[in-house]
Amino acid sequence: MATGKTFYIETFGCQMNAHDSEKVIGTLEQQGYAQVQDEAEADLLVYNTCSIRDKAEQKVFHRLNDYKKFYKSGKRFAVIGCVAQQEGERIFEKAPYVSLVAGSASYRKLPEMIARLEAGESRITGLDDRQTDETFETEFTSRQNPYRGYITIIEGCDKFCAYCVVPYTRGKERSRGSDSVLEEAKRIADLGYTEIQLLGQNVNSYKDSSGKLSFAELLAAVGQVPGIRRVRFTTSHPRDFTKDIVEAIDAYDTLCDHVHLPVQSGSSRVLRAMAREYTRDWYLERIAWMKSARRKISITTDIIVGFPGETPAEFEETVELLNEVQYDGVFGFKYSPRPNTPALVMIDSISEAEKSLRLQVLLDRQREIQRVNYDKHLGETLEVMVEGMNPTRGQVTGRSSQNKPVNFTTASPIAPAPGSYARVKVTKTFPNSLAGEAV
Ligand code: 5AD
Ligand code: SF4
């Protein structure tokens, strides 16, 4: 490998992956590597991959195929993340110029793997999967987001929903100790961050490894770290969603008034087939807790349409659920069969065209709901955290505590800095954003 030691990293997928990359970047920098933004300049190219939906593994191989020429010029490739864990050593067969394959449960061994790579070894693997009890804690995190500090509090997943690849790619569920989480929160606050996002595949399944705090108590504690103004958490699982989470949001204004609570389907029959471990009524009870809170809590969700065997009437139950909950946002997905998952043996009975149709119906309905929901903000004054500028429209962009995008103009000729706060009067609403003026 050339001297000077540079790396390029590209990240696909969820916030967990984005934050893993921050930790991988920090670890590589600790090993003497400098990050570059151009593949052509890098000695080491790292792809942090996602395999949650679609034919992700094929996309990765397709992508890697373009890079044979780079290998010849001495560059080395590492494939990490969910596709790496899922495909394992098959990656070396299909893409022989890849030198390192590692899943997220092995990242704490990265320094050792990098040393072997530098020693000229090829076919280095870190494929710990469900065996490991360790979490990837490191103080070398290189935070790439200038205004939001991510903290992983729980890794992996033990839920085994029938459609989901995560339990196989990210290993078994393991939580950090609350002391270490709080220390990291304080470190982030000292760096000047005012917003923290707690991360976990099922963030609210958190079980303090030191046995001190419940998830709701941890939320409250992070919300009281001096300097922290906003605490977000994602993603919550309905099965482990307890009332004290709502009570904590009510008690501490620093906890953002937004909960992302994926429902996946509005039909109890489909939920059972998905092995979600709750019914429609059970889910709606959690929604009722949030709706009766003192603060108005914004609720968003994930939905899968076209799960094997979903009838038109069952799909209709999902649309009905949207009407009932009146979500502020819905991420809708067409079911896609994933390797290793229990649903793989179920016949993927619904045609692609029908899945697309259902998704369209769902998203059209949701757009109307959001139009009404967002319109309710007209005339309100909201606290907005600045994220950037949209120069073509001459607007500052940011987010409300409820995580709604707010675009606004200011009287001042100097654009406010990312991470600063503004009070914005809402003068116009859209189904996905708000617009206004700084006051
Ligand atoms: N097919 C379609 N959507 C899926 N999701 C997870 N697995 C699949 C799959 N096999 C969706 C779920 C989850 C979100 C992150 O991705 O809605 O909440
Ligand atoms: Fe996947 Fe279900 Fe675990 Fe979420 S809870 S990561 S959907 S298995």
UniProtKB/TrEMBL annotation:
Locate the Radical SAM core domain: which residues?
A: 143-375
What general EC class does the enzyme of this chain belong to?
A: transferase
Catalysed reaction equations from the record = N(6)-dimethylallyladenosine(37) in tRNA + (sulfur carrier)-SH + AH2 + 2 S-adenosyl-L-methionine = 2-methylsulfanyl-N(6)-dimethylallyladenosine(37) in tRNA + (sulfur carrier)-H + 5'-deoxyadenosine + L-methionine + A + S-adenosyl-L-homocysteine + 2 H(+)
- What cofactor does this chain's UniProt record say it requires? [4Fe-4S] cluster
Domain MTTase N-terminal residues, every copy: 5-119
> Which GO molecular function entries does the Swiss-Prot or TrEMBL record give?
tRNA-2-methylthio-N(6)-dimethylallyladenosine(37) synthase activity
State which Enzyme Commission number(s) the record gives. 2.8.4.3
Q: Where in the cell is it found?
A: Cytoplasm
What InterPro entries has UniProt attached to this entry?
Elp3/MiaA/NifB-like_rSAM, Methylthiotransferase, Methylthiotransferase_CS, Methylthiotransferase_N, Methylthiotransferase_N_sf, MiaB_methiolase, rSAM, rSAM_horseshoe
* Reported function: Catalyzes the methylthiolation of N6-(dimethylallyl)adenosine (i(6)A), leading to the formation of 2-methylthio-N6-(dimethylallyl)adenosine (ms(2)i(6)A) at position 37 in tRNAs that read codons beginning with uridine.
> How would you summarize the oligomeric state and partners of this protein?
Monomer.
Specify the protein name. tRNA-2-methylthio-N(6)-dimethylallyladenosine synthase
Q: What organism is recorded for this protein?
A: Acidicapsa dinghuensis
